[in-house]
Amino acid sequence: MTHPTSFRRRFGLLTLIVVSFAGCGDSIRFAPVRGQVLVRGEPARAVRVEFHPDSIDGTRGPSSSGETDAEGRFALAYATPSATGQGAAVGRHRVVLRDLALAASETGLGVAVRFAPEYANLLATPLRADVKALEKAAGEAVGNDLVIEVPSNKVRTP
């Protein structure tokens, strides 16, 4: 029969080992991301913008999303089971665009198709974006300000 004190010591040691290994991984860094979606040079309202970390390029973390306003402007936010916040994980992302105006229509009749279906497909989207770590410029934090251009497939800084 195992002595109760011996069991507690083993359990305590095992718990300590598991907790110490849990903190060994790299933590995910986030940075603010805002921007504007332009379709054929015009601001695109009612578009859901999604940034999905590109694991092929080594980016880890949750996806982030935001919706454009009347001027096509958006700000990204993320949510995990344990945390929510503004921005996106630092690194390379696949960018997905979902046309909310088209999605809100029951039939799609009379609603102009603003961009091709591949923009809404995570595996087919031609859009990529790099989220850079937050920098300090003249004492002020500078985030990622991006312009997403469709159909030219450009993601750039203004």
Ordered list of secondary-structure elements with their pairings:
Elements: H1 4-22, E1 30-31, E2 33-39, E3 42-43, E4 47-53, E5 64-67, E6 73-75, E7 77-79, E8 84-86, E9 88-89, E10 91-99, H2 100-104, E11 128-131, E12 135-137, E13 140-142, E14 144-150, E15 154-156
Parallel strand pairs: 2-14
Antiparallel strand pairs: 1-9, 2-3, 2-6, 4-5, 4-10, 5-7, 7-8, 10-11, 12-13, 14-15
Outline of the structure:
With about 160 residues, the protein is an alpha+beta fold. The protein has 2 helices and 15 strands. The radius of gyration is 21 Å and the shape is globular.
Named at the architecture level, the CATH assignment is Sandwich
User: What share of the residues lie within helices?
Assistant: 10-25%
Top-tier CATH class? Mainly Beta
The mean pLDDT is 82
Name the helix and strand elements from N-terminus to C-terminus, one letter apiece. HEEEEEEEEEEHEEEEE
Molecular shape: globular
**What is the distance, rounded to the nearest whole angstrom, between the alpha carbons of the first and last residues?**
72 Å
- Separate helix tally: 2
What is the name of the CATH topology? Answer: Immunoglobulin-like
Overall strand count: 15
Overall radius of gyration: 21 Å
Secondary structure category: alpha+beta
Low-confidence stretches: 7-25
Number of domains as seen in the coordinates:
1
